[in-house]
Predict the structure of Homoserine O-succinyltransferase.
Amino acid sequence: MQDSNSVGIVTPQYVHIDKTLKLKSGSVLTSYNLVYETYGTLNADRSNALLICHALSGNHHVAGVYADKPKSTGWWDNMVGPGKPIDTNKFFVIGVNNLGGCHGSTGPASIDARTGKHYGANFPIVTVEDWVETQAQLAEHLGIQQFAAVIGGSLGGMQALQWTLDYPDKVRHGLVIAAAAKLTAQNIAFNDVARQAILTDQDFYGGDYYSYNTLPRRGLRLARMLGHITYLSDHSMATKFGRDLRDGKFSFGYDVEFEIESYLRYQGDKFTDLFDANSYLLMTKALDYFDPANAYDGDLNAAFKAVKASFLVLSFTTDWRFSPERSRDIVKALLNNNINVSYGEITSAHGHDSFLMNDAYYHQLVQAYMNNIEV
């Protein structure tokens, strides 16, 4: 049964940006493609446009379903739609697959026109700043001069934050959810272990596995399993799985015995059919590199000096990967610059995945803030 508040059937759109893009790494793309979706109606003065930025394994498909895939519900469908916290009766919502992704935008699995082969490992490293630049080009293509808000959770929240830094006059509100102004050493360590699982897979072939008609499934599977462990809280794991055994007894072997093992292996196997390993490497590197204070000798206050947007910053009590302390760092730096910011620290049992959950209080906070945005 379809959600009566769903945006309904949606269709991806494609744009070719025929403009040279100089990446932060120094590499250059002479042109690139982006895939995106829109929900709602752009008003006459184009003041109700809103951008949603996706997290590591997300994409442009934020809400609704595809006509030929009725179970293909968007990853934030519980948040976006008519009458929902991000109300498509009020806002024109845009979701875009980031450059370097694997769901239609130009990335490692795309064909490099110069060689006629997949980019593979030759696709350049991309950063959050690069993504913001490409999103700004998409906005220009759509005739949008300013976003009412830029919103994201996790890596998406970092993009929302970067928007307010790079284009202070082009975004009125930033919603930064379950994010951080930079990764901790522990987070960088988790990302490196995930990358090493992929890089050392015998089927990785230096990133050119496309030419060998294979995939580094084992490495990507392990990377995703590790990721899932960090996205969940100890409480949510205990509640869902505890120490439950699949067959009710020990088998005294190394195959699946505990339900949590079965869950992780299932998630890992499923992911290998949905995501490109080279894109996973790129996304985790973008996470590692994000640090707006770096250009200011580590001074986040100085980094936020030019910001003009108002903010809603949200964190979750059991999110140990992007802890509330990291969100409070952002809030403090914003307040030190006399920037208008609202902060919510939400009690939740779901760990980092809390920003995706259908939590009534969380959704009420977002909806209350969005209701006060003028368009």
About this structure: The chain has two domains: 13-182+291-372, 188-284. DSSP finds ten helices and 14 strands in the chain. The CA atoms of residues 180 and 327 lie 6 Å apart.
